[in-house]
Fold:
Amino acid sequence: MREAEYAEFSKLVRATHHAIKDATKIDHLTIVQEESSTHFHLWFFPWTQDVIERYGQPSLVKIRDIMSDYRGQQVSEREWEELQISTEKIKTLLRNTL
Structure:
């Protein structure tokens, strides 16, 4: 990656990190580069109060198990609405930052 590309990528990651934390009001957000894929994945894993109550304090080693547990659960209509609201807040914050 060239220096200019790295600077732009770093700015995007940092802005996204702050936007997610600002929009969702969470204290802990873990950034993970997925290593088992054939292409690049960057995860922003939010440690919501519900996740911390169920799985304990934030820890990188817990993320795969947590994601596996959540994949098997139904998402309620209310949860989808909350996700949509948070996503729109994040998009707005990013538009104003970048």
The mean pLDDT is 91. The CA atoms of residues 13 and 31 lie 9 Å apart.
